[in-house]
């Protein structure tokens, strides 16, 4: 292992030297050089499974490419700027407040109680996963709300049936990321509709109507939903890393737990009988299950009321839930505040990873990564092939480092002009770009929604990325075929 790490870090050093000696100084664009930072970042993570460090190396390399020996100061300036930018700070606050809500439900014993209740309704692991899948359809007007709430609720339920948490994360993410772009009231749909108006593709007030016309052409999210459903009901088997995750359920720890239960049936029966009376660590009875749903209802209602502002919805949920839980004796004021803070502490690592991802995305944009890719695409334009080319090229770049909605901001005006000038199918070309962005957000290891889903389902970012990848690739292939056929015949 030491030799392997030595070679890896020597390789990174060699890349820095190559950039120092070969990268052009102060150009308008760095051309093919702009591909190096995301590729190095992705390769490092695959070889070491160190996600945060990979993000940092990728960002440092991109900054070094442009600013050379002042790169450390510049990286620090970018970090401060990115974490204080309104949109990014909003997302970090979303993560921290959601962490508090999850901690409140856990410490109160209500998450466990919900798991027992839902487990009694789901008579098998397959049924529990189907409930997991369908819950996303009711909450996916906001992807952060969906991934955090569904993940936190269904993880203990699926745990009961020894379903790997990687599977819970995959099913939770598939509905969260897709439906927010398919529902007309979804935050993704609203954002894109606004861009269509801003860029003159839709008239003022017609953004949602025009976007709705693109929904049937969003082949990747539709295919991803289908692939996930087939996997949940058993038509599509578990393969690759997901299959190995299922195999590892029977490890020594699970066997030991089973042995204890066999040897001590009285104890097991007593624990099962006391499920409803075992609450917090102090031994207080768990409150009625209705108190589990109160914060979720407050979260949903306040988020909707404040126009899909998840952070404000979460903040109000913490305040309102605190008043109710303290009044009902579920918490004392001191323990409630301590639990809120503990939940935020649990999210700090994820917030740091997110901050590094912000700097990485900003830095590769700074060296002209997206502009270079758009330029390459425009050189090889064949009208009927344009939707497929757009989907393939931007799926590749988004897989390395997803820019999330920033991709749409940068690329939509260029593609509108390009598709019109060459006579390509403009709706299909736009849909191909949006599908590529959704593919990146659902699959890329730097995706914020992927990070949050991994946290809410209590698995690791790397394991979540690795186990969902084969199913994302299936949906990707189906989508590519659809864009090929659509471009040739429509």
Automatic annotation (TrEMBL):
List membrane-spanning regions. 7-24, 30-48, 55-75, 87-106, 127-145, 182-202, 214-236, 289-306, 313-331, 351-382, 389-416, 436-457, 469-489
Q: Under what name is this protein listed?
A: Na+/H+ antiporter NhaC family protein
Primary location: membrane
Q: Which residues form a coiled coil?
A: none
Q: Which Pfam families match?
A: Na_H_antiporter
Keyword set for this entry? Answer: Cell membrane, Membrane, Transmembrane, Transmembrane helix
The way this protein sits in the membrane is described as:
Multi-pass membrane protein
Q: Which domain of life is it from?
A: Bacteria
Q: Where is the Na+/H+ antiporter NhaC-like C-terminal domain?
A: 219-487
Where can this protein be found? Cell membrane
UniProt cross-references to InterPro entries, sorted A to Z: Na/H_Antiport_NhaC-like_C (IPR018461)
């Amino acid at each position: 292992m030491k030799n392997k790490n030595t070679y890896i870090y020597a390789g990174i050093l060699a890349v820095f030297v190559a950039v120092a000696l070969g990268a052009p100084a102060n150009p308008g664009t760095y051309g093919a050089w702009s591909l190096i930072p995301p590729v190095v970042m992705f390769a490092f993570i695959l070889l070491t499974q160190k996600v945060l460090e990979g993000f940092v190396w990728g960002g440092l390399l991109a900054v070094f490419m442009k600013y050379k020996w002042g790169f450390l100061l510049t990286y620090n300036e970018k970090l401060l700027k990115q974490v204080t930018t309104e949109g990014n700070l909003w997302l970090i606050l979303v993560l921290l407040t959601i962490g508090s809500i999850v901690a409140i439900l856990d410490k109160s014993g209500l998450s466990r109680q919900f798991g027992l209740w839902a487990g009694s309704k789901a008579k098998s692991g397959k049924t529990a996963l189907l409930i997991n899948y369908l819950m996303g359809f009711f909450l996916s007007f906001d992807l952060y709300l969906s991934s955090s709430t569904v993940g936190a609720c269904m993880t203990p339920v699926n745990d009961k049936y020894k379903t790997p948490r990687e599977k819970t994360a995959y099913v939770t993410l598939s509905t969260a990321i897709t439906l927010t772009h398919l529902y007309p009231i979804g935050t993704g749909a609203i954002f894109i509709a606004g861009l269509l108006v801003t860029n003159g593709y839709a008239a003022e007030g017609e953004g949602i109507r025009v976007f709705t016309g693109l929904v049937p052409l969003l082949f990747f999210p539709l295919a991803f939903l289908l692939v996930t459903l087939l996997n949940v009901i058993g038509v599509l088997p578990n393969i690759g890393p997901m299959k190995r995750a299922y195999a590892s359920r029977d490890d020594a720890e699970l066997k030991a737990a089973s042995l204890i239960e066999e040897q001590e049936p009285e104890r097991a029966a007593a624990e099962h009988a006391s499920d409803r009376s075992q609450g917090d660590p102090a031994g207080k009875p768990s409150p009625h299950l209705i108190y589990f749903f109160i914060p979720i209802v407050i979260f949903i209602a306040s988020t909707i009321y404040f126009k899909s502002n998840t952070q404000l919805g979460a903040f109000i949920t913490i305040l309102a839930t605190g008043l109710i839980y303290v009044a009902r004796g579920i918490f004392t004021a001191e323990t409630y505040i301590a639990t809120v803070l503990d939940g935020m502490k649990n999210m700090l690592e994820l917030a740091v990873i997110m901050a590094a991802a912000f700097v990485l995305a900003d830095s590769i944009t700074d060296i002209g990564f997206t502009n270079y890719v758009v330029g390459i695409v425009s050189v090889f334009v064949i009208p009927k092939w344009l939707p497929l080319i757009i989907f393939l090229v931007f799926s590749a770049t988004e897989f390395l480092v997803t820019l999330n909605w920033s991709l749409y901001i940068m690329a939509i005006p260029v593609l509108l002009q390009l598709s019109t000038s060459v006579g390509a199918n403009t709706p299909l070309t736009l849909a191909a770009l949006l599908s590529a962005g959704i593919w990146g957000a659902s699959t890329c290891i730097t995706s914020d929604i992927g990070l949050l889903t991994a946290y809410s389902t209590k698995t690791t970012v790397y394991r979540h990325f690795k186990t969902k990848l084969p199913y994302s690739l299936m949906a990707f292939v189906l989508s590519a075929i659809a864009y090929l056929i659509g471009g040739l015949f429509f």
